[in-house]
Amino acid sequence: MKKVLLGFALSFLTIVSVLAQSKTITGKVTSAEEPEGVPGASVVVKGTTMGTITNLDGTYSISVPENASTLVFSFVGYLTKEVTIGASTVINVTMDADVKLLNEVVVVGYGTQERREITGSVTSVNSEAIENLVAPSFESQLAGRAPGVQVTTPSGILGARPIIRIRGVNSITSGANPLIVIDGVPVVDSDRSAVNSSNPLANINPAEIESFEVLKDGSATAIFGSRAANGVILITTKRGSTGKAKVTYNTSMGINEEVERFELLTGDQFVEIANEKRANANQSPLANPGENTDWQDLIYRKGFTQQHNISISGGSEATKYFFGLGFTDQESPVRPNDLKRYSFRSNIDHSISKAVRLGTSISYSLTEINGLNNGANSLSGAIYNATRALPNVAIYDPANTAFDGYNVTANGATTGFGANLAGPDNNIPNIGFVLDNNIFRSRAHRVLGNVYGEVDIIAGLTARTQVGIDLTMADDFQSLDPRHGDGRGVNGSVYMAYNPAFRWNWQNTLNYQTVIADNHNLNVTVGAEYQYTKFYSFFGQGQNFSDNFYRQENLISGSYNNQFSGGGYVENGFDSYFSRFNYSFKGKYLASFSLRNDGISSLPEANRRGTFMGGSIGWRLSDEAFFNSELFSDVKLRASYAEVGNTEIGSFPYVGGFGPVLGGVGAGIGYSNVANNGLLWESSKKFNAGLDMTIGKVTVALDYFTNDIDGLILSAPTAPSLGIPGNSISQNVGAMTNSGLEARIASNVINKGKFSWNTDFNFTWLNNEVTALVQPLTSTYNRTEVGGPIAQLYGFKWAGVNSANGNPMYYSGQNIVQYNLVPGAIGWRAYDPANPGNVATTASGPTQEYLGNTLPKWQGGWSNSFTFGNFDAEIFIRYSGGNYIMNETLRGLLGQGFSNNHASILNRWTESGQVTDIPKLYSGQDANMFQTSASNSRFVEKGDFVRVQNIVIGYTVPATALQSAFGGAITNARFFAQVQNPFLFTQYSGLDPEANQYSGQLNFGVDWNVAPVIRTYSLGLNVGF
Amino acid sequence: MKKFSITNLKLVLAGVAMMGVVSSCEVTDLSPANLIPDDQAFATAARIESAVLGVYESAQRGFYLGAVQRGYPFGAANVEQGDMRGEDMYNDQLFYEVTYVGSYNPQTANNNGMWISLYRMINRANIVLENLDAAVANGVLTQAAADNYKGEMLFMRALAHHELLTHFSRPYSDNPSAPGVPYRTVAINDVPKVPIGEAVPRGTVAEGYQKILADLNEAEAKITAANTTFRARKGAVIALKTRIKIHMEDWAGVLTEYEKIKSAYAVTPDPITPFRGGTSTDNIFSFVNTAESNAGTNGALSAMYGNPSNGARGLVKISPLIWRASWWLQQDKRRTITTQNATGIFTNKYNNPTTLAEPNIIVRFAEVVLNAAEANARLGKLTEAVALLNVVRDRALGDPTLSFTVAGLGNADAVIDAIIRERRIEFLAEGRRWPDIHRLAGEGRMAGVPAKATSRSITNINFYNTDRAIPTDHAIPYADFRFIWPIPLEEIQTNATAPIAQNPGY
Hints:
The complex is a heterodimer. Chain A is mostly beta strands. Chain A has 9 helices and 53 strands.
């Protein structure tokens, strides 16, 4: 597509030079990619404005003055070439493809633009670097690849969606995910499974992707309007090009493993600790020596992973095609989680005539995820359970055939007691039985397709219409065993659901490009877009089964006593009338302006439409006559400003009314939302200033940006005693600012003989500040208040363990108070440093304060790729920091109940004078000892890290060897070995500083029983036929 | 055949595209499929009935930690919290640990869940109340139908406010001038009403009780529909009034109310009957749970209180303290409404662990009878008091020779003590223990929350059936700030104009 559009755009740049006393030079411009001729290339006499462009076959003819000495050949995507005019009147030129950052063609929304003409902030990522990696979805591999783009994979569960933030968090309670556009169609980005985390982007095969463009500032995103408040990721899939059919086969196979496990007590250590907790509380011992079991052995495995992709592409002058087939099967290190995806894509472009083109892009995929319950405090949650289960108890009891040989109490209520007098806290089940017998399966069939037609009406004027659809047909199956675990209470349960999502999107654009008086380059786009999306669902559920037999594959009619059903329906619509005007003068002065009017179904009728505008300017300093530097070959300054709204505000936040409620006395209606007919568009004012330059072999891009968001649509909390539904009302009440700096430096450092080294480094600094709210927004761990960043950790400030008596101590205002862990005298007491053992004075409890920001302040990535002859290698490093993490996992693992603990509990206080950070043990006193109802500075840690993300080594088989071995049947072959996530450098004590229980904006930075992230070793092969 | 020219095709295609650009395509004028707008919710009699049912739903399935779960406030949680604040039911797991050991604070979930879900229920009731007059004026409802609805809603409002007063305020019996809770009579269903609602102060306990009585008196006057267990009718209103007045120590008032309904209900011969179906002569008012609508496996009484050997979860047992009490006679039939396993004894009042479909009893006639018995005793009418006490007790003993007599008990205090012990036995596992501790500690009859069997220590049936020492802990003196729950921190932080005062000590 890019080439097609571009070719026609440039064919109008018919520059005719009128000069006297000249000679005529003719020739042909070719390149390795287009050996039959490069059409549309510019040929200019150096130091003049005289020039021409090449014909469709790459030939040209130009009249040059007698005194002309040099011809300059240039074309998008190629290095500019200067050729001295000698005596010859024929100059044939072979152009070299330009791999530099600044000269690519960039997809910008409703069209393409040359990188050199861009005045907004757009980062491109070529998929080559990531397409061979093993990953459930593409976006996790974008992490660190582009400045300003933060992607974190918060757990090792396949299907869990990575958190993507472009230039920070740009909404407080509305959506904060970027808009994802695939081949021009904005796609539905909604998890449609109720039983698993089912990342919708995992439906897309990364191997079908040609390139990513990340639009970051207002001017770049403005063309997508209010949908783009959180930035845009444009994905272009692979398309065919003219030439012989090319077949490729890419495969890799490998192993997934957990990066690390928790260090827990052994059975014998547990007995000592558990009984000490009870003894200190004057309670009888419960634990007796038995086994030494690590229940984590049950939940982890070495997961096998494989992926295969075959593609065929090629085409004639008129028709180009790309077909791709893909299959992947990835097993998570956490049992029984896996993800399988079957995918197919067909992209076809056809020119009916010189002026009329049409084409389609269609993909189908089936993604199947087998998940599990990994709820952070679910009794059957794998990580929670395996780290709490009693380690002095055996996993198996071969004689217990009723429970498949697992150690389970006869009534099925909990894990067997072993030698203990009691079972584990909360009667947690035997996780081995649960993982073997409970099924969490989600499937999604997804069809993404579009059809376009394009007509050149008159020279320079092109009309285009495009209809796209995005259909997800997702179904769920959850089956719980009646004997033990989550299904026991209801005597077995099977839940099935069908949760489709459907979107259509229709875009019509008129584009006019022209050049006026040689130097004024105009590009005007006007258009209209309509988009409609609906989500609907229904489910059936059976409970209380006649026999466990019927629970295996599907709901079976008549096999259960209690039946339930339900469903829901939500729709939303968006339309927009837009225009964009690009102007450049000699490529030196650049300006762009866009204006649009958006309508959205989510706002009240009176406020439904909003008009937003944006503009940007650029100045190519290096094209000025006065600029004469050998060192700086290209320097461009640019600035942009735009206003956009935000469409991700929920479906109908303004509508007040009564929702359906099913009570015991019957189905009724319940007041469920407070009306706010004054709800308005929120507005983001985005400013960006940037500098692009090339210094010798080094390309540098710098950006500074601010994003002022005003009138944030916020679920503004209300006092609970008002009884307002959800204790909140959607109101335009907040304001927030993000500002930051981005830098990208890339260079071909060494290119000597067989060896070359390319490096690409990026850095982002981000600052977030909430500037207006009605009142602070507080959740369990976080608090957001005016003057600070969103979602700071908020809670109690730890003052250590009183070495005199082992009491935990906290700050209460300026004072230190201790929680007296003495039977009969429990409670808060004043602490006197002069007399630490004195617990005579009662005191009020600890007070809360801010304990650290949760958003990384700085982050980035550094890629280094090397080639040496036929060998290639890449090492990719990612870093992030400036944030704090609440290690709730550790706090839970230091619990005072009858559960296993983190091994560090062995450092507990036991005798007067002992200095430690673990208080005296005391059964059942978690809530006060560790102040479990909020964050606690005892468990707040820095989140800085440097991660070696990937190391890849490849070997390309020499063409001569292939020729002799296969007689040309195989044109290229490359073997590679890679390890993903091999090393992590951090001070954080938990499993991983990117582990995060929450992905929303107001709750963040909490590591709470999250599955460890994955390390992958794999071997692979790329072959071309 | 006419040759199709490319030029024409271009024009046709361009024309189609242009039409797309200029013609409008309506996609933004949508409305939700799951919300009946405010102005249409009371448009028909059927919808008004639905809105009333919605208030029942909010009573039975309120919010806990941001989600509808666990039977807050009156689906199950009122029973669980009421029991866990007392000593007669024993906590064996973490679920109710905070309440049982008294380690709650302004952020803990159980106490906050009660506050949030009770006020949500109150607001729903107030919204219905404010729309009834217009429905009558519009001819949608008859005056009689509107009056019945009004009575039901006032009952709901009173019931919820009383639950708040017993948890978050000091007892009336100690100091009626102590801070109460905001008494909400105005629906908050529009943005401008928020500051009006925020301005409502805590008031005093006495004001709260007066408003509860005013609501109940009006309800009593409005309701004409026949008594039925699962809807608030006149019988329920009057029964609740006996409870309110006993908290207010208005003994004569208790008897006045008792007289009104004494012939409408009867204690069942078998003490288990009220718990099997829930529509006996003893069942005055209950909130219904069904298989489709209940507190869930993490909240329903059958799941939480039932015996694990019968498929329940068994997080709460009967306390060995009451089980081994000498005054709970061995032949008492109510000892058989239990099941046991190797770890202890469980109530069997709730025995639907699979469906969780069981009514949550709010008030039974047995309570009204014992309220009247106590009122008589307080007024010195010991004969009447003992007679009423025996109405409840004798049916469980099945042996007339064991009946109490005035002479046998001796004096008024002994009669009152016997009635209070009878309440502990009769209402065991029904959440009534806390309100009694609240009022009795307020008057000084109790020292506060008594010592309980130490949490998570009763691990064996031999704590029940042998003389093994029962470890105890968790007593809270009446003067201790923990005797009443804290106001949720969220309540204070999110009231932008007039935050209410926190209870002292928190």
